[in-house]
Design goal:
Structural class of chain B: alpha+beta
Radius of gyration of chain A: 21 Å
CATH class of chain B: Mainly Alpha
Organism (chain B): Jiangella ureilytica
Largest sheet of chain B: 3 strands, antiparallel
Protein name (chain B): ArsR family transcriptional regulator
Shape of chain B: elongated
Distance between the termini of chain B: 23 Å
Protein name (chain A): Transporter
Keywords (chain A): Membrane, Transmembrane, Transmembrane helix
Oligomer: heterodimer
InterPro entries (chain B): WH-like_DNA-bd_sf, WH_DNA-bd_dom, WH_DNA-bd_sf
Number of helices of chain A: 6
Helix content of chain A: over 70%
Shape of chain A: elongated
Distance between the termini of chain A: 31 Å
Amino acid sequence: MTNPDELTPEESLRLIAREQAAVAGRHRSSIVLYYLPWGLALFIGFGLLALDQGPGSDGPWADLPDALPLAVLFVLMALAAAVTVVTSAREARRIGGESTRRGAIYGAGWALGFGTIFPLLGRFAEHLPEDQRGLLFGSISVAVTGVLYVAGAAIWLDWSMFVLGGWLLVVNLVGALAGPGWHSLVIAVAGGGALIVAGLVATVTARRAEP
Amino acid sequence: MTTPPDLDPVIHAQARLRVVAALSALPTGDHMTFPYLQKVLDMTAGNLSVHLGKLEEARYVEITKTHQGRRPVTYVALTSRGRAAFDDYTTAIRALLDGAAGTEQP
């Protein structure tokens, strides 16, 4: 009997592997859109702050307009947040169910966390000298981000996310202990750099999974 | 070659095997929208509907029609029965391959 639809066992296994990889690969290719924009925002934003603060020297490393580093950091973070929202909306048009509900609650957790912690920091910041004020906001924001990544790892059982969150928490502490300018430099290079690497690693594994 | 009696005829057909394999990549509790499944498999809507109909008849997939805001959405997911059937199918295929490899060797 010749049936064009007839499959050999080898063909069956190949088809199964191909379709499973296609779904997993499409999911992994969105992960880059969660990590890369935030990595670039931290790298460029905190990089400019470090240049302005000149860690280890008496003055700035580069003469930048006063408001420029913080303005760039906030604009890039707003853009990264927008990319995150658009990406999760796009994912919700593809896949629904438990993962989407987990993502929605997790996203609300971020908004609620930062929405309440920033005013709280503002309450104490008025009593601090200016360089310590920046360090307070910078170090607590990165610490909250690290904790939320670690929590995300528990939600999605994702060890790479745990490593990323744990890394952010440790380098954040090291930078904060070293002092204001150093913290900016450490977060730009080790924090932003780690997020950029995480995004690129996700892209490479997604490409490899594509049939 | 005819279909060996121990392979599930609902799954052992190229198009339906692809549908079930793609759906099996999602964790339990998740479902795919119809247009996304169509895109992943590169099938026409009509063709996919026919195969989903057969899978639904066997109670291997669950098709849910709902609304996201005002937009109608159709979700497709493997049922636990469908997931078990797919697992049995892959086990049977692997056993066939192992058997074939075994007989080829002297």
